[in-house]
Amino acid sequence: MTPPSKIEDSSSSSSSSADSSTFVTGNSWYTKVSDIKPGVDRLIDAFHTKQKTQDVQFRLNQLRNLYYAVQDNTDELCEALEKDFHRANTETKNLEIVGGLAELVHTMSSLHEWLKPEKVTDLPITLKTNPIYIERIPLGVVLIISPFNYPFFLSFSAIVGAIAGGNAVVLKQSELAPNFSSLFSKILTNALDPDIFFSVDGGIPEITELLEQK
């Protein structure tokens, strides 16, 4: 796996290490319910007005930021999951992080090829007079709700695919892994452009409010 070249992006701080030295307790790390609608609205408005994700190079830059944000904070992410699940750091690194980063690198190297218009050849005779193509167009703002059991890979893989497809992401992680979820939210928020990413942390009230925004 050849990692992407590292570039400096003034809109993010993906190279800084996060702090996982303390245990997360209670619900002080939850997103305020009153902040959820404005956060989602911000992404929807930016998607339609700024259209940053229409640019494939912008998507690649965001994925590159994501790669180095995780690489620079691998130890902290492993330690957070050790606190939540008493899972060995080597298990988290080998089963979740290594595979997730490999998927990201593969996505970056394949993205231009995947986005090429695909000519449709199996057509009725009445439609054969003009060429018809399938073009991959971003959907908009997508919601990713990740489970607690493999919280890194099952959220990271979905985020990579959504950004590669030109979408903005609202992420809701499990409150059952508080040390990991709170840390990963901070890492992602620092790494990604605020016009394409918003993280919501919390339990039933927060996810209920979030689902009202669809």
TrEMBL record:
Residues 10-21 have a biased composition (Low complexity). GO terms for molecular function: aldehyde dehydrogenase (NAD+) activity. Keywords: Oxidoreductase. Residues 1-23 are annotated as: Disordered. Pfam families: Aldedh. It comes from the Eukaryota. The keyword Ubl conjugation does not apply. GO terms for biological process: aldehyde metabolic process. Residues 45-211 form the Aldehyde dehydrogenase domain. Signal peptide: none annotated. One of its GO terms (cellular component) is cytoplasm. The keyword Lipid metabolism does not apply. InterPro entries: Ald_DH/histidinol_DH, Ald_DH_N, Aldehyde_DH_dom, Aldehyde_DH_NAD(P). Belongs to the aldehyde dehydrogenase family. This is Aldehyde dehydrogenase domain-containing protein. It comes from Candida tropicalis (strain ATCC MYA-3404 / T1).
